[in-house]
Design goal:
heterodimer, A: mainly beta, 11 strands, about 0% helix, B: mainly beta, about 55% strand, globular
Chain lengths: ~110, ~110
């Protein structure tokens, strides 16, 4: 079966660094996405990884290891507005999966002053 | 500012009602998606349309009926729903239905079935 695991909740302090982990077991791999979702709002795209390594985009970075089925999202210089749910999503191999994205349950991040 | 809009934002309906959710994208995309987001559960793909053709039905009950009249509009017709269908229904679009194509989400319709 397909499975995406990420922690349910995390708490961090304003100005600090936090790492949100995601592990996956899927029938093949065709890319991994991170989305941010504030309560009552649409998920918004943060990053896409398909090759191993680190992708940096401002305060946010995303890492992928395909051999380990593992990714993390790194948030630096945390701000109160970063309090949100962070969703990890994987595309399995195209095969009979079409465009299906498999989502994790999301990690609720609370940033404290 | 999202290029994907959804109406209504909130909907309360009885189990015998028929209602429709509407999604419109202003991004020039060719693929559109319906997702269901229930409390404490992962986002769950329901349907995929690519160039107006349905390419994915993720074992969704027939009381949910999608319609895609053109690449900019997507509907979800609802009839004889159950209370457990109460959830946030999200629409998304992407350039095409390809692995690297980012999906952009609308704000969702919060549905409550009484």
């Amino acid at each position: 079966g397909q499975n995406i695991d990420q922690p349910t909740e995390m708490t961090a302090t304003e100005g600090a660094i936090v790492q949100i982990n995601c592990t996956y077991q899927t029938s093949g791999f065709n890319g991994l996405f991170w989305y941010q979702q504030h309560a009552g709002e649409a998920p918004t795209f943060l990053s896409y990884n398909v090759l191993d390594g680190l992708e940096e985009k401002g305060r946010f970075s995303s890492f992928l290891s395909r051999s380990k089925g593992y990714s993390y999202l790194l948030l630096k210089e945390l701000q109160m507005k970063d309090s949100a749910s962070y969703l990890c999503a994987v595309r399995p191999s195209r095969g009979n999966q079409g465009g299906k994205l498999i989502f994790g349950q999301g990690t609720e991040l609370s940033v404290k002053p | 500012e999202t290029g994907v809009t959804q109406t209504p934002r909130h909907l309360v309906m009885g189990m015998t009602n028929k209602k429709s959710l509407k999604c419109e994208q202003h991004l020039g995309h060719n693929a559109m998606y319906w997702y269901k987001q229930s409390a404490k559960k992962p986002l769950e793909l329901m349907f995929v349309y690519n160039f107006k053709e349905q390419t994915e039905n993720n074992s969704v009950p027939s009381r949910f009926s999608p319609e895609c009249p053109n690449s900019s509009h997507l509907f979800l017709h609802l009839h004889t729903l159950q209370p457990e269908d109460s959830a946030l229904y999200l629409c998304a679009s992407s350039q095409e239905d390809r692995p690297a194509d980012t999906q952009y989400f609308g704000p969702g319709t919060r549905l409550t079935v009484l």
